[in-house]
UniProtKB/TrEMBL annotation:
Signal peptide feature range: 1-20
GO cellular component, one term: Golgi apparatus
Species classification: Eukaryota, Metazoa, Chordata, Craniata, Vertebrata
This protein's name: Steryl-sulfatase
Function: Catalyzes the conversion of sulfated steroid precursors, such as dehydroepiandrosterone sulfate (DHEA-S) and estrone sulfate to the free steroid.
Keywords of this entry: Calcium, Hydrolase, Membrane, Metal-binding, Signal, Transmembrane, Transmembrane helix
Catalytic activity: dehydroepiandrosterone 3-sulfate + H2O = 3beta-hydroxyandrost-5-en-17-one + sulfate + H(+); estrone 3-sulfate + H2O = estrone + sulfate + H(+)
Organism name: Chinchilla lanigera
Pfam families: Sulfatase, Sulfatase_C
Length: 587
């Protein structure tokens, strides 16, 4: 060997060592650090996916993730509706800790022009990864608020929460975006506005009659003013559908609105293009991309190619289209040569919506053997979701993990793999999944999980490791179904969390989830010798958990912050000019 060559070899080895020492300092995460591609479906039921047992729907791309990766079969969302579940996912904390939980029945952020949202003081995994040198992107749905005080302060915007790049809906897709009969807001609002109009009209007529007959010693002014107000309310009610479409159904790129209202026929292709261009731009990594699908939430926007293709109506078509999107996204990853260096995760924010039905057709998801669905605090159908992790060559192919895990676990897992540290100044409820995924740990670190419906703990789960691995669940409260015991809360959007239509159970309902994942066999002291021990242990744990909660958390979904504020309404023009054409998209 030539001396010159040897010098170069030495230099290279020394440089390599120096780099290795530098990058491994303070962390035992595997090297090199992976990229992250996190995929989250909206309202997808665990029973809607082939690899979770559906034999008639076609989800080959999602199934492939399970075949080549790890499948979590006991993966639990922190809430059964979007906003709190997503807040928990991004922060690794029960949403009650961040004030992202409601007390009043308005369980998610209600308007793009509301003032509540993920508080700026919360730390998302994106924020930590950005600090660790990652490029971070969010494409798709946000639904965690936008502004605090002025229409452009964007205090709750993804870019204020650690994302370098955002393209998508700051709010959420909803039935009202296509003026569906299955409406989240319009129907209720129209009812209130109608009532308001009648009261005002009656008042105007009374005032006018009083003036005419000289029974009331007043001028015409009050009657005219009240009549004008009634006319305004009438007009708002008449055009409510259009107003909602403009107010909530728009797309943004970073801080700018690009399309208001959205033209849904091109949304899917826009989102896919955005994903592929993000991957291209960032192929030298490291990056974290969170693709938060608008699928499969109503109104089930589906392109022509997929309409009528599934055996399950429009809902099935929409699920199959989303699976195709997953395939396209994984294809882009492959094309950029990133498959081997990227940890891919797939999940749903919570279970399928049983209430989404019209005229005997189901437009919401299927939760398999699990009882209940979206919005029903404790029932498994609302919170048990798909959980797939894929990193070829690093994670084993085809491993199935039945241990209880949580969507909140993604936070510490991602942070650790990126070489970061979880915040030490606050409680993090998620646990690092890595040992479980790699098989170096046999058990989940979750011993107890609490299942909230708004601010109330409706149910709790105990992963009792010492007694041969039983997983107990108690329900302290359950929503009343119509018809009793089955089905959903028809005609009421989502089931309530409190009030007359919630049953309190004392003693609580106890289930053994391993033997009875469908929660059909209520255990009693006669059928289950451990009944009293299990119930009292879970009661104690819930009390302990409630005691350690901070009580000075600012509530983000209270009525005050969660109502529409005209001055916070995001508009691409100046309010009320809330429309702009897609050609203006400054890509
Ligand atoms: C598959 O999913 C569809 C759509 O949600 C559902 O209607 C059907 O019952 C499911 N089939 C099975 C076998 O789980
Ligand atoms: C309870 O449910 C019934 C049946 O759906 C409904 O008529 C009633 O108004 C509900 N009560 C409350 C307090 O929401």
């Amino acid at each position: 060997m030539l001396p010159g060559h040897r010098v170069w070899t030495c230099a290279a080895v020394a440089l390599g060592l120096a780099l290795a020492l530098k990058t491994s300092a303070g962390s035992d995460a595997p090297r090199p650090r992976p990229n992250f591609l996190l995929l989250m479906a909206d309202d997808l039921g665990i029973g809607d996916v082939g690899c979770y047992g559906n034999t008639t729907i076609r989800t080959p791309n999602i199934d492939q993730l399970a075949e080549d990766g790890v499948k979590l079969t006991h993966h639990i969302a922190a809430a059964s509706v979007c906003t709190p579940s997503r807040a928990a996912f991004l922060t690794g904390r029960y949403p009650i800790r961040s004030g992202m939980i409601s007390y009043n029945g308005y369980r998610v952020v209600q308007w793009a022009g509301a003032a509540g949202g993920l508080p700026p003081g919360e730390i998302t995994f994106a924020k930590i990864l950005k600090e660790r040198g990652y490029t971070t992107g969010l494409i798709g749905k946000w639904h965690l608020g936008l502004n605090c005080r002025s229409p452009r302060d964007h205090c709750h915007h993804p870019l204020s929460h650690g994302f370098d790049h955002f393209y998508g809906m700051p709010f959420s897709l909803m039935g009202d975006c296509l003026r569906w009969e299955l409406s989240e807001k319009r129907v209720g609002l129209q009812h209130k506005l109608g009532l308001c109009f009648h009261i005002l009209a009656f008042a105007a007529v009374t005032l006018a009659a009083g003036r005419l007959t000289h029974l009331l010693p007043i001028s015409w002014v009050p009657a005219v003013l009240v009549a004008l107000l009634a006319a305004v309310v009438f007009l708002i009610s008449h055009f409510l559908g259009d107003l909602l479409v403009h107010a909530d159904c728009f797309l943004m790129r970073n801080h700018a609105i690009t399309e208001q209202p959205m033209r849904f026929e091109r949304t899917t292709s826009l989102l896919l293009e955005e994903v592929s261009s993000f991957l291209k731009r960032n192929k030298d990594g490291p990056f974290l991309l969170f693709v938060s699908f608008l699928h499969v939430h109503i109104p089930l926007v589906t392109t022509k190619d997929f309409l009528g293709r599934s055996q399950h109506g429009l809902y099935g078509d929409n699920v199959e289209e989303m699976d195709w999107m997953v395939g396209r996204i994984l294809g882009s990853l492959e094309e950029e040569g990133l498959s081997g260096s990227t940890l891919v995760y797939f999940t749903s924010d919570h279970g399928g919506s049983l209430e989404s039905q019209l005229g005997g057709h189901q437009y919401g998801g299927w939760n398999g053997v699990h009882k209940g669905g979206k919005g029903m605090g404790g029932w498994e159908g609302g919170i048990r979701v798909p959980g797939l992790l894929h990193w070829p060559g690093v994670l084993p192919a085809g491993r199935v993990i039945p241990e209880p895990t949580s969507l909140m676990d993604i936070f510490p897992t991602v942070v650790r793999l990126a070489g970061g540290q979880v915040p030490q100044d606050r409680v993090i409820d998620g646990h690092d999944l890595w040992p479980l995924l790699r098989g170096t740990a046999g058990h989940s670190e979750h011993e107890f999980l609490f299942h909230y419906c708004e601010h109330l703990v409706h149910a709790a789960r105990w992963n009792q490791r010492e007694a041969g691995g039983r997983v107990w669940k108690v329900h302290f409260m359950t929503p009343v179904f119509q018809p009793e015991g089955a089905g959903a809360c028809y005609g009421r959007g989502v089931c309530p969390c409190s009030g007359d239509n919630v049953t309190r159970h004392d003693p609580p309902l106890l289930f053994d989830l391993e033997r009875d994942p469908g929660e059909r066999q209520v255990l009693t002291p006669d059928t289950e010798p451990a009944f009293h021990a299990v119930v009292s242990r879970l009661r104690r744990e819930v009390e302990a958990h409630r005691r350690e909660l901070k009580h000075d958390v600012f509530q983000q979904l209270g009525t005050y912050l969660n109502t529409w504020r005209p001055w916070l309404q995001p508009c691409c023009g100046t309010f009320p000019l809330c429309w702009c054409s897609p050609q203006e998209d400054p890509r």
